[in-house]
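Incident log, structure service

09:12 report received: a user says their structure output differs between two submissions of the same chain.
09:20 pulled the input from the user's history:
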Amino acid sequence: MIKEKNIVCAVTFIDEPKVKYVRGQIPEDRIISHLADTFKNLGDFTRLKILLALAEAELCVCDLSALIGVSVSAISHQLRLLKNLRLVKYRKEGKMVYYSLDDEHIRSIVGEARKHIEE
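09:34 re-ran on a clean worker, output below:
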């Protein structure tokens, strides 16, 4: 068995046009910071389970509590974090508040990650 050594370029050469192009494609630091926060929050088991549930149907806090098996208070706390990150939104109907994914981008992110793991 051959041990992998640190794989680095044998010769220092910078492809300036490629580096310039990629630099122009990478978003500014504030966007990257927000992306990092989003992925960090997606890494939490309960929050991810909430998002997977909301990918299937619009649900209220009580529905999510029963489905996930944690307290209403804990679900409310997680939903507040997800709402602040614009991953979920809510609508009121009388005294009821229903949560759903903020948009199709969130459904896509969660769905694609799930497909990746299940393949």
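09:41 both user submissions now match this output. Likely a transient worker issue. Closing.
09:42 reviewer note: The first strand starts at residue 59 and ends at 60. The beta strands are 59-60, 88-93, 96-101.
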